[in-house]
Each structure stands twice: as C-alpha cells, then as structure tokens.
From TrEMBL:
Keyword Chloroplast among record annotations: no
Entry protein name: AAA family ATPase
Domain spans labelled ATPase dynein-related AAA: 38-172
Record organism: Solemya velesiana gill symbiont
Any single Pfam family the record assigns to this protein: AAA_5
An example Gene Ontology molecular-function term: ATP binding
Keyword Nucleotide-binding attributed: yes
Coiled coil stretches, renumbered: none
Amino acid sequence: MSDTTVDPKQYIIKSEPYYESVGDEVALYEAAYNARMPVMLKGPTGCGKSRFVEYMAHKLGKPLITVACNEDMTASDLVGRFLLDKDGTKWQDGPLTTAARIGAICYLDEVVEARQDTTVVIHPLTDHRRTLPLDKRGELIEAHPDFQLVISYNPGYQSLMKDLKQSTKQRFGGMDFDYPLEETETAIVSKESGVDSETAGKLVQIAHRARNLKGHGLDEGISTRLLVYAGQLIGKGVEPIAACKMTMVTPLTDDPDMRDTLDAAVQTFFG
Ligand SMILES: Nc1ncnc2c1ncn2[C@@H]1O[C@H](COP(=O)(O)OP(=O)(O)OP(=O)(O)O)[C@@H](O)[C@H]1O
Ligand SMILES: [Mg+2]
C-alpha cells in the first residue's frame, strides 16, 4: 500500500484528443494493449507519438501517466522514495509505481535519455512477472491487470553512448512513426491551427523540402508540431514569411547557409 492514495480518475483523459490516423497503428496498438504487451514508439520529434498515446488511452478508457525522462532521472524518481514530513517518514510512490497500482498506461517519453541503471527498473514489469519490487520499502507490487508500459524514442538521437540495452529493447513491440503523408499532414495542420487548407498545404510543402535536407546539413526535418506553430501565428495575423521564419527556420539551425536555403523555400511558397 502507498501512504498516499491516488484517484485514477485524475489521469483519465476526458475529451477525445484529435488524432488523425496514418495507417493501421490504432488496431495494432489495441491488439498490443489487449495482450498487455509493452510498446515502443519510434519516430522523429513532433510527429504525433504523444498525441497517439493520449488518443489511445482515451479510446481504451484507461488512465495515462506520462513521464518525461532525462539523464538525471534516478530509479527513485520512477519508483518512489521516503519523504520526511512533520509526522515522520512517509513513502511517496513514483509515477511508475502509481501506474502499476492503478492500472494506468505509463508513457515514458524519450526513455533513451535515462541512464541504463534507471531503465532496468522496468524489466520485471515488462515480462511475464509484471511485478515491481520497491526495494527500499520491502514491497513487491503486482501490476494491476490494466497496466501497460509505453516508451518513446527518437532514433535520430541514438548514439553508442545513448541507446537502450538489447535486454530492454527486446521487451517491447515496436511501432515506427513518421511525419504523416501530405494530405493527412495538411488536414492536421489546418485542424490544429485553424488556417485554411491552402495555407496548410504550403506549409507542408516547405516542410517536405526541408526534410530532404536531413543529414545534409540539418539534424532533423521540420516537424508537424512546427507546422502547427506556423499556422497558429498566421492565424493570429502574423505575415506568413515572418511566421515561417520564427517557427520553421530559426529553431532548426544556426547555420547561415542552411537558413538561406530554408528562407528560399519559404519565399517560393509565400513570396
Ligand atoms: N496524427 C496526428 N493527428 C493529430 N495531430 C497530430 C498528428 N501528428 C502530429 N500532430 C500534431 O503535432 C503535434 C506534435 O505531436 P506530438 O506532441 O505527439 O509529437 P511527438 O512525436 O510526441 O514529439 P516528441 O518526440 O518531441 O515528444 C501535436 O500537438 C499535434 O498538433
Ligand atoms: Mg512527445
């Protein structure tokens, strides 16, 4: 038992998140959830992974607990720790423990960022054991039947130093995500930002050009998220070239030549 009680309802997503399906991902994820299979979502930044998990949690009617991982994160940050208060010591569950107790979908975002000694705490939860040992507390939690673990990572950032161990990777079913096809992405940008589909279509075209520069001077292409930002500024009355510069050029690169190239692509469509 935890020393604090958590109401699962606080983690239920009340209204349906807008998610434009891009393939068979909804059915595949549902099947994985029904098997309580841990799932790994791979794909570039801003392509819809988090939105997809929110949509699926809502569709399945399950609570969702999201944890943004970083390299300073310790196992205790996930599992929990003793806290001192005026009445003495009190155990505080971490988000992973809460999710395992209440039967939530636990989404560990950018899990590669966490150190490997942190990541291994998920191992007993992601195989037939479905348990979580709270060593400091001497408690072994059996995961709630509805509990499922989902992790995301951006394959672009992988390096020899930062990667998941095979013994971690091979506990998950994997799903590849990428920027949606032109027509779908145009619909998303239009719906999310409120710009008309002609303007959204131009933003998507610019992104396509920039995405071809990935690996040729750009580390990442322009994400769907940035296209939505551009649309939002245009919707607020910002002149399109200025809006594109702020959202689709400046954040992406400091290299003057690359900026010129991107500016030229913007000019082609909005000049
Ligand atoms: N299929 C989609 N349906 C609806 N909106 C989408 C979709 N794909 C992307 N978006 C839009 O793009 C934005 C960014 O998506 P999201 O936050 O899910 O990216 P992500 O893949 O989780 O990125 P990161 O790896 O940086 O966390 C969303 O807020 C949404 O506006
Ligand atoms: Mg995300």
